[in-house]
Amino acid sequence: MAGIIHSFPRIVLVGCGNMGVALLKGWQREGLTPQGVRIIEPQPAKVPQGFTTLADPSRIEKGFKPEVVLFAVKPQALAEVLPGYREFAGEGALMVSIAAGKKTGFYESLLGPCRLARVMPSTPALVGEGASVAVGNAAVTEADRAVVTRLLESVGTCHWVADEAIMDAVTALSGSGPAFVFYVAECLAAAGEKLGLSKELSVALAVQTIRGSGILASESEQSLEALRHAVTSPGGTTEAGLKLLMDGRLQKVLEETLAQACKRGRELSE
Predict the structure, then answer these.
(1) What is the CATH number of the domain that holds 131?
(2) Which one of 137, 168, 199 terminates a domain?
(3) Domain containing residue 19
(4) Statement: residue 67 has pLDDT above 90
(5) Residue 51 reports pLDDT greater than 50
(6) DSSP line for the chain
(7) 200 and 148 in a common domain
(8) Where residue 31 falls among pLDDT bands split at 50, 70, 90?
(9) Same domain assignment for residues 41 and 79
(10) Which of 145, 168, 191 is the last residue before a domain boundary?
């Protein structure tokens, strides 16, 4: 696949739900044209205008040889969907899946020998701020990694791990994490209301505080601890709040929250 890193590969996108649409929009921003992708989606109304939508892979014209096949379907649909792409895998297309839970052995059993990357994306990809983590099987090359990284960085960041076993922890932290952050925002907003703020103002402040803090943390060269200290004046309001927040209970709750999500991820992948 050397030589396709500087221009987009020919892609077959299987499924076009919210994450599929987010990827398409990200790829378009990076220079992908509708002529370079075929979308397999039984409900074409979901697909952005201008793209070729097909009901199944048998309808892909013979002259279109995909270099990447990306599966963006629900995990429970994979057993039925994957065999239809066995020919593409055999012809050397890189297989990429953003479906949660299924291990590489599952894909290889249905696709045959192939180059495969499993990816756990996160929903902020919908606004170009996702955190994706990928793991490749033994056949994946450095060139393949570069291609997958480019595809995912169009909607956020991309990290690679070597051990597939830690993908359940990744799912717990970054895959499920947005829901946990949304709940923290809910709690902050509710606490603001109890102090006399209007609901609208409290929600706006909670959301912007989390948004701004995240951007600051991602762009700063300082550690999270150093950033916290920078906001905390001795004897001030922040220190007063942190004395309660840092009594160990929150840390324990978050550890148990991720542990439960990770445990469920392992159960679903068995």
Answers:
(1) 3.40.50.720
(2) 168
(3) 11-168
(4) yes
(5) yes
(6) -TT-SSSPPPEEEE--SHHHHHHHHHHHHTT--GGGEEEE-S-GGGSPTTSEEESSGGGS-TT---SEEEE-S-GGGHHHHGGGGHHHHHTTPEEEE--SS--HHHHHHHH-S--EEEEE--GGGGGT-EEEEEEE-TT--HHHHHHHHHHHHTTEEEEE-S-GGGHHHHIIIIISHHHHHHHHHHHHHHHHHHTT--HHHHHHHHHHHHHHHHHHHHH-SS-HHHHHHHH--TTSHHHHHHHHHTSSHHHHHHHHHHHHHHHHHHHHH-
(7) no
(8) confident
(9) yes
(10) 168
157 and 235 together in one domain = no
User: Tens digit of pLDDT for each residue in 70-94?
Assistant: 999 998 999 999 999 999 999 999 9
How many separate domains does the chain show?
2
